[in-house]
């Protein structure tokens, strides 16, 4: 029920003190309950923020111009609004609330804008680094369920930047197509393995409005070094995740808040020329062993499983 001032005719006019109530009172009775809830909470909070900061008309116009330019930067291959959501921590918050999984399951983190469908299907052991740059790395492990039983036939869609810190799609014509991308399938024991290069930190695209905002806030645009994975298997909840290197200086200040303790892996430096030769590497090389734990679809839930405040 609105607490706005009623006129003698029963009409409600705008009034700064009860502004959100007046706006919310306009929502039609037949509006879906969920849309009504979301919009009224957002309207309440935005009006409260405007009031609390005593926002000036000039500042409001700066905000409008920022959002306008953010929209204008969006195209089929650039999504500046998702980037904005990422740097404000909103992507991670929504994901955290919407992905309840049993303890021990591999955790999600940000998808990011550089995933592409249709990466080549690869045999286990394939080397996805096609430009020969970087320190060689072998990644091996298993996909298992919450009881530790192997998940055979799971797919692992992998992508990463090259050693210059760019994804192939950011450097079309410079990097080989599908450089550092591949889709692997687990064997009967749930095992997978592939060769690549050790990931390094890199900046998120910072030549747009989000980059300007980060600069204004005194923030850097760097992501902690990581490999991306989407791990899928029939009957299991799909995991969108990363493996982080433990030695990256941006681990505690990832630009999009994507780091979780459980996703930091142990990367070992191996100085074994014979093993290097077997892998068609030169010593020393890096090795990381990593298991993914998938939760069954019936054991997961969205934010209805997380108690409301
Ligand atoms: C990425 O890891 O590819 C990424 C994630 C969020 C924003 C930009 C890039
Ligand atoms: Fe990335």
Question: What key phrases describe this protein's structure?
Answer:
309 residues, alpha+beta, 7 helices, globular, four-stranded antiparallel sheet, binds benzoic acid, 2 domains
Question: Please, could you describe this protein's structure?
Answer:
The protein has 309 residues and is an alpha+beta fold. The protein folds into two domains: 15-53; 80-299, Aromatic compound dioxygenase (Protocatechuate 3,4-Dioxygenase, subunit A), CATH 2.60.130. Helices cover 24% and strands 18% of the residues. The chain is built from seven helices and eleven strands. It has helices at residues 19-24, 33-53, 57-72, 80-87, 90-98, 209-216, 273-278; strands at 136-145, 155-159, 181-185, 191-197, 202-203, 222-223, 226-232, 239-244, 267-270, 285-289, 292-294. The strands form three sheets. Strands 1, 4, 9, 10 and 11 form a five-stranded mixed beta sheet that branches. A four-stranded antiparallel beta sheet has the order 3-2-7-8, with no helix packed on it. A hairpin with a 6-residue loop joins β7 (226-232) and β8 (239-244). The chain is globular, with a radius of gyration of 24 Å. The structure holds benzoic acid and fe (iii) ion (FE). Benzoic acid binds at residues 83, 86, 110, 112-114, 204, 223, 256.
């Amino acid at each position: 029920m609105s607490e706005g001032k009623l006129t003698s005719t029963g009409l409600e006019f705008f009034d700064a003190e009860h502004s959100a109530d007046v706006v919310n009172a306009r929502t039609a009775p037949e509006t879906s309950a969920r849309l009504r809830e979301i919009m009224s909470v957002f309207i309440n909070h935005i009006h409260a923020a405007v009031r609390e900061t005593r926002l000036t008309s000039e500042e409001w116009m700066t905000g409008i111009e920022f959002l306008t330019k953010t929209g204008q930067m969006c195209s089929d291959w650039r999504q500046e609004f998702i980037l904005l959501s990422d740097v404000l921590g909103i992507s991670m918050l929504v994901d955290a609330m919407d992905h309840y999984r049993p303890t021990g399951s591999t955790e999600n983190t940000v998808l990011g804008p550089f995933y592409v469908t249709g990466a080549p299907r690869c045999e286990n052991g394939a080397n996805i680094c096609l430009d020969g740059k970087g320190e060689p790395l072998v990644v091996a492990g298993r996909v298992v369920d919450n009881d530790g039983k192997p998940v055979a036939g799971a797919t692992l869609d992998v992508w990463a930047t090259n050693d210059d810190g760019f994804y192939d799609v950011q450097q079309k014509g410079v990097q080989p197509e599908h450089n550092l991308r591949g889709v692997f399938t687990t064997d009967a024991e749930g095992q997978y393995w592939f060769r690549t290069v050790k990931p390094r930190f890199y900046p998120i695209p910072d030549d747009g409005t989000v980059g300007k905002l980060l600069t204004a806030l005194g923030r850097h645009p760097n992501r902690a070094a990581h490999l991306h994975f989407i791990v899928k298997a029939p009957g299991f909840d799909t995991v969108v995740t990363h493996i982080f290197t433990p030695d990256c200086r941006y681990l505690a200040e990832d630009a999009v808040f994507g780091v979780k303790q459980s996703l930091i892996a142990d990367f070992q430096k191996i100085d074994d020329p014979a093993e290097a030769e077997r892998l068609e590497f030169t010593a020393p090389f890096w090795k990381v062993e990593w298991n993914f734990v998938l939760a069954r679809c019936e054991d997961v839930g969205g934010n209805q499983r997380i108690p409301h405040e």
